[in-house]
C-alpha cells in the first residue's frame, strides 16, 4: 500500500450547479482511499459547525435581501473557519483534503457573478487562506442551459425547493461560468477543465487521471536542475 504524501494535498472541485460535482467527488474519495490515503472531505460554504450555520444564512431562500458584500463577508468567514479548523490541520497530518468548492468560487460567484470589486474579493481571500491554495482544481464545465435542465429534473425528482442561489440562476450562472473559465485561463497548471456534458464515467476517468498525475508528481518531484533546464530551454 503506498505511503501517503506528507504534507497533504488539497484538491478542489468546482462548477455551476448540477455539473456533477457530487458524483465525481465520491469517485475521487474512493480512489484516494483505495490508494492508501486518508481523505478529509469538506464543502463550501460549510464544513464546520460555524460554517454550516453560515451556510444556512447564505442559502436560505427567504434571504433574498442579502447584500452582495454581506454575502462575500459571510463566505470569507466560513472559509477562514474551515481552513483553521479542518483543512490546515489535515494537510499538516499528510491527509488529502477534497473540497466541494473552494476559493475559486469567490472569483466566479462574488467577483464575476455579483460584480464586486476584484480587490475586495482577493483581499478577503488572502485573509482567509494565507498562502494556502489548492494543489489541483477540477472545473466541471457545463453550459448554463444544461445546468438549468438538470436542476429542473432534480427538483422534480426530489421535490426539493430551490435555495437562494438557485432561485437567481439564469444570467447569474452565465456570469459565474464565465468567471470560472476566466480563472482557468489564468491558472492552467492548477485548474483542469473537464467537459461535464460527457458521461459520468468519461468525466470520472479524466478526473482520476489528473488526481493520479498530481500524486505521482509528489512522489517523484522533478530535480531542481531539470526544472531550470525546462524553464531556460535545452543546454
UniProtKB/TrEMBL annotation:
Any idea where the Thymidylate kinase-like domain is?
13-205
GO terms assigned for molecular function: ATP binding; dTMP kinase activity
Q: CDD domains in the record, alphabetically?
A: TMPK
The UniProt catalytic activity note for this protein reads:
dTMP + ATP = dTDP + ADP
Q: Keywords of this protein's UniProt record, alphabetized?
A: ATP-binding, Kinase, Nucleotide biosynthesis, Nucleotide-binding, Transferase
Q: Which InterPro entries match?
A: P-loop_NTPase (IPR027417), Thymidylate_kin-like_dom (IPR039430), Thymidylate_kinase (IPR018094)
| Family from the record | Belongs to the thymidylate kinase family.
Tell me the NCBIfam families matching this sequence. Answer: DTMP_kinase
The protein's role, per its UniProt record: Phosphorylation of dTMP to form dTDP in both de novo and salvage pathways of dTTP synthesis.
> What protein does this entry describe?
Thymidylate kinase
Organism, scientific name = Vreelandella rituensis
Amino acid at each position: 500500500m503506498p505511503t501517503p504524501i506528507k504534507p497533504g494535498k488539497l484538491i478542489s472541485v468546482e462548477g455551476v450547479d448540477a455539473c456533477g460535482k457530487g458524483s465525481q467527488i465520491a469517485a475521487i474519495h474512493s480512489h484516494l482511499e483505495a490508494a492508501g490515503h486518508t481523505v478529509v472531505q469538506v464543502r463550501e460554504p460549510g464544513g464546520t459547525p460555524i460554517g454550516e450555520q453560515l451556510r444556512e444564512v447564505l442559502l436560505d431562500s427567504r434571504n433574498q435581501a442579502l447584500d452582495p458584500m454581506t454575502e462575500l463577508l459571510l463566505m470569507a468567514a466560513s472559509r477562514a473557519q474551515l481552513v483553521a479548523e479542518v483543512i490546515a490541520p489535515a494537510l499538516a497530518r499528510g491527509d488529502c483534503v477534497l473540497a466541494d468548492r473552494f476559493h475559486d468560487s469567490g472569483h466566479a460567484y462574488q467577483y464575476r457573478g455579483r460584480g464586486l470589486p476584484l480587490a475586495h474579493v482577493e483581499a478577503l481571500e488572502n485573509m482567509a487562506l494565507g498562502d494556502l491554495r489548492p494543489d489541483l482544481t477540477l472545473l466541471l464545465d457545463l453550459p448554463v442551459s444544461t445546468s438549468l435542465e438538470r436542476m429542473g429534473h432534480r427538483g422534480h425528482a426530489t421535490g426539493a425547493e430551490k435555495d437562494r442561489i438557485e432561485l437567481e440562476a439564469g444570467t447569474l450562472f452565465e456570469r459565474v461560468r464565465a468567471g470560472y473559465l476566466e480563472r482557468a485561463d489564468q491558472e492552467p497548471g492548477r485548474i483542469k477543465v473537464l467537459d461535464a456534458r460527457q458521461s459520468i464515467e468519461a468525466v470520472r476517468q479524466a478526473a482520476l487521471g489528473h488526481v493520479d498525475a498530481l500524486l505521482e508528481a509528489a512522489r517523484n518531484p522533478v530535480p531542481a536542475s531539470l526544472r531550470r533546464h525546462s524553464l531556460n530551454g535545452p543546454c
